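Field reference: sequence -> structure
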Amino acid sequence: MATLAFLTSSYRRPRTALLGATALMMLNGNARAASTVNALLPPDLSPWNMFVNADIVVKAVMIGLAFASLVTWTICVAKMLELRSETDIARRRLAALEHHTALADTARQTRDDADAVALLVQSAEREANLSDIAFDSGFTDRVALRLERVQAAIARRIARGAGILATIGATAPFVGLFGTVWGIMNSFIGISEARTTNLAVVAPGIAEALLATALGLIAAIPAVVIYNHLVRLITNYRALLTDAAAQIMLLISREQGNSSHRVSRAAE
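Structure field:
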């Protein structure tokens, strides 16, 4: 029995040693493979390093999207300040119009100004100087046409730049998608040339592609939000101009009524 136990232990010992050696070799192989992959991977996959190491086409896409984002925020700041100033002036002018009883009084106060409501008043006064308010039945129609033309010109001026935001919001995601597709194509080309699917070959190109997509969204989302907000502000501003034009027409109608009343009393 002792002899059988000795032979059994002697048989198991080499097998255990062989399995241990095999496991050790596999661990060493995996460690060497992992170290090789880590050595091939870029040391830093930060956005700046991805941009620096990107293909020229992907770089051009990223620069274009960054410029579009800069344009978006520049237009945002400029139009917000302009609309706030113009809206405050229009509200003050509208309040003044509601307290005036004659177009001539309003025209004297706005003669040297160039804001939107002042331009409406000056246009109505110009037509009044060319027409006979008391007896010309088509005077109000001509004033209405003048006011519509002035309102249309002011609306075009105040909306300048909003179309650029709409264009950026609509096209930036597709430009970023183009950069993504180009980066993935470069990744597949790198795999083909290296004849390996190693992560070190695939990761940089995919990271660059995803960065282009992210920049496209960063440029598009604020552009769409700012455009919608500007459209609401412009709509409110145009409503103020419509109220001002209506108030001017009321002043003119009141003056015509008073003039007709005075003429009829004189005839009696």
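Note: Confidence is low (pLDDT under 50) at residues 2-40, 260-268.
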